[in-house]
Backbone:
């Protein structure tokens, strides 16, 4: 029966190829969207691991997370030295990573921090930072760059970096008298760390002071940088995670200046809730496209049943029973669906393979292009089952027809 179904489909290969293609495109869209959606969550969740709190000036928690971890935007304002001391001297705090932001180099963010960053920062289930080449900065004019910065700009150890005011790709205001020299290149992490340039806190401040006043910077830039000597945000690790709620409340009640303490995990959930509508819309759109493809199979087979009434009657006349004839139609539906799913899987893998390096280079988004995830097997199985169910409609219609209906066609 399978051999007969294949020969029947080959005889009508033109129209059936279009049906298979529509199923393939819908399956590729469904699998591709689901792969990107799932791994986007995993990438975001893996951007920080082991950081219990992010402390910044009073502001929106999502904005603070985006600025300090994902390097998108900036906190509303900086923290004073007194606030930093208040946070880091707490007896429940194990370590603090201060971060100063506000400058960039050819579109990549420049961050002032301490050496503790390279010892305590964790990502992707407690993985630490490591160096592909070189060592940490050991002076005010040294810099450590992420893997994408090195690869994208072709920088090596000893390369010079001129920092510009602001976050744009180009700037008319450059700290030309205070170049940094690359002392280390971090190994790839698949996080925004790959797209950042790290300098010491002292180097960051010295850059804006012009190393003794020899730098020629626009006065407006000096005014903008007046606040940048303060810390933009602090990543905090605690001795015991049981104290996280109490410390979050305590830091928020600091009277000297308004602070916001953010728990990264909770804020990530809040971020996904904000993007949940778009995420759900994409899933529904891909599902509707699959349904449209399955409807195409039903329509095609129903049309072929009307055209093949004599063929079905001949099959019955030579001994094929009604179940065999109906099974032929059902088998064709399953074969069409299976071929569409197989082609759709191949298309999705090719598309993801081409898209992965682009996402990695531009956004630091690590997309696993190879292999089939467990959830994808389940989705393809459901599509095959749905193909069999929609094929049951024309199969039942064929089953209900009599032998005389095919031999003497009524007009």
Residues:
């Amino acid at each position: 029966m399978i051999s007969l179904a294949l020969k029947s489909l080959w005889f009508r290969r033109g129209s059936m190829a279009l049906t298979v293609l529509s199923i393939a495109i819908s399956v590729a869209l469904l699998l591709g969207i689901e792969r990107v959606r799932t791994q986007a969550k995993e990438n975001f969740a893996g951007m920080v691991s082991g950081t219990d709190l992010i402390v910044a000036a009073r502001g929106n928690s999502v904005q603070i997370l985006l600025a300090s971890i994902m390097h998108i935007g900036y906190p509303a304002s900086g923290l004073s030295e007194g606030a930093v001391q208040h946070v880091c001297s707490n007896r429940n705090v194990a370590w603090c990573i201060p971060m100063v932001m506000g400058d960039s180099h050819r579109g990549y963010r420049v961050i002032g921090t301490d050496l503790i960053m390279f010892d305590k920062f964790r990502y992707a289930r407690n993985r630490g930072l490591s160096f592909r080449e070189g060592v940490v900065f050991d002076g005010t004019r040294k810099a450590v760059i992420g893997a994408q910065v090195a690869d994208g700009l072709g920088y090596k150890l000893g390369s010079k970096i001129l920092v510009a005011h602001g976050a744009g790709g180009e700037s008319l205001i450059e700290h030309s008298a205070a170049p940094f020299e690359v002392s280390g290149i971090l190994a790839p992490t698949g996080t925004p760390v790959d797209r950042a340039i790290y300098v010491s806190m002292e180097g960051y401040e010295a850059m804006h002071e012009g190393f003794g006043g020899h730098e020629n910077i626009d006065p407006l830039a000096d005014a903008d940088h007046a606040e940048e000597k303060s810390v933009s945000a602090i990543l905090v690790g605690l001795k015991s995670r049981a104290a996280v709620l109490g410390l979050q409340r305590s830091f928020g009640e600091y009277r000297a200046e308004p602070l916001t303490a953010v728990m990264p995990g909770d804020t990530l959930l809040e971020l996904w809730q904000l993007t949940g509508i778009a995420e759900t819309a994409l899933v529904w759109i891909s599902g509707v496209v699959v349904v449209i493809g399955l409807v195409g199979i039903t329509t095609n087979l129903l049309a072929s049943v009307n055209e093949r009434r004599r063929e079905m009657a001949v099959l019955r006349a030579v001994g094929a029973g009604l179940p065999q004839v109906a099974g032929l139609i059902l088998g064709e539906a399953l074969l069409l669906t299976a071929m569409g799913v197989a082609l759709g899987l191949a298309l999705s893998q090719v598309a993801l393979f081409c898209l992965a390096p682009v996402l990695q280079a531009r956004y630091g988004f690590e997309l696993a292009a190879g292999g089939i995830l467990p959830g994808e097997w389940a989705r393809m199985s459901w599509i095959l089952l749905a193909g069999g169910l929609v094929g049951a409609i024309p199969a039942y219609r064929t089953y209900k027809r009599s032998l005389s209906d095919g031999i003497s066609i009524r007009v």
Confidence is low (pLDDT under 50) at residues 211-229. The CA atoms of residues 311 and 406 lie 8 Å apart. The two ends are 30 Å apart (CA to CA).
